[in-house]
Design a protein that fits this description.
The protein is an alpha/beta fold. It contains six helices and seven strands; from the N terminus they run βαβββαββαβααα. Strands 2-3-4-1-5-7-6 form a seven-stranded mixed β-sheet, with helices on both faces. Helix 2 packs across helix 3 and helix 5 packs antiparallel against helix 6.
Length: about 190
């Protein structure tokens, strides 16, 4: 079994924000893999699907971004899964818009949801898939920037990135981290 967690904030206020790209990817994976309807569990919304015979639990924590770790910990503990059966999907403003990057470990790099997951699991060895949302403009507070929506000119790029990220999650489920890194850690330049 695999656990794929998309990070974001609950509620319609944040639905289309940069910070909710992780939720969008979970919805994409659910949609393309015939997932069950989402239900509450583990301080979040959960659904199950199968990717090439592999059972996959999809989780969108509803604890708000900065407290995502407790939700992830509950799901891992319940299913008695090792950390390498977990994939965190989140936004990253240090990557160009639409760029995907898998990593097997490392710091949170300023992503507070990932930081909370790392703290809750007591390891930086948390596999993650980051989706680039572009750096914030100089005059804008990064906290405000990640809660803002995408500009109309960015919408097509991020929609394509969410579809690509869904495929990347499926690749990780099928083939593991290294194969997914080799396939998806390069993204065409912005069009």
């Amino acid at each position: 079994m695999k656990l794929v967690v998309g990070l974001g904030n609950p509620g319609t206020k944040y639905e289309r924000s940069r910070h909710n790209v992780g939720f969008a990817v979970i919805d994409q994976v659910a949609s393309t893999n015939g997932a069950d309807p989402f239900r509450t569990g583990f301080d979040g919304l959960t659904s199950e699907c199968t990717v090439d015979g592999e059972r996959v639990l999809l989780l969108k924590p509803t604890t708000y971004m900065n407290r995502s770790g407790a939700s992830v910990r509950k799901a891992l503990d319940f299913y008695k899964l090792p950390v390498d059966a977990l994939l965190i999907v989140c936004d990253d403003f240090s990557l160009p818009l639409g760029r995907l990057r898998f990593r097997g470990s490392g710091s949170a790099g300023g992503q507070n949801g990932l930081k909370d997951v790392i703290a809750a699991l007591s390891t930086e060895g948390v596999p993650r898939l980051r989706i680039g949302i572009d750096p914030p403009p100089e005059a804008i507070d990064p906290a405000d920037y990640v809660l803002s929506g995408f500009k109309p000119s960015e919408r097509k790029v991020i929609e394509e990135a969410v579809i690509d990220a869904g495929r990347a999650v499926e690749s990780w489920c099928r083939n593991g981290l290294q194969a997914a890194m080799n396939e998806f850690n390069v993204k065409k330049a912005k069009e």
